[in-house]
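Re: the request from the purification team.
They wanted to know what the chain is likely to look like in 3D before they choose a buffer screen. I agreed to run a prediction and write the result into the notebook, where they can find it.
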Amino acid sequence: MPLHRSQNNRMLGGVCGGIAHWLGWSPALVRILYVLISILSAAFPGTIVYIILWILMPKSPVY
């Protein structure tokens, strides 16, 4: 299954929801891990990575 941004499970851009679906994990777990990694990396790189993924990842088809 390809990596897509989530249409149904999104809080901002659907990036974490799409990654969670792709990995078969809970979206809440992916969001918590993203926030922790962002804080530990001084938040700025995590924000840039999220924005880049938001632009590059295609939207998932609506089921």
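For the purification team: Helices lie at 15-23, 27-40, 44-56.
Please add any questions underneath this entry.
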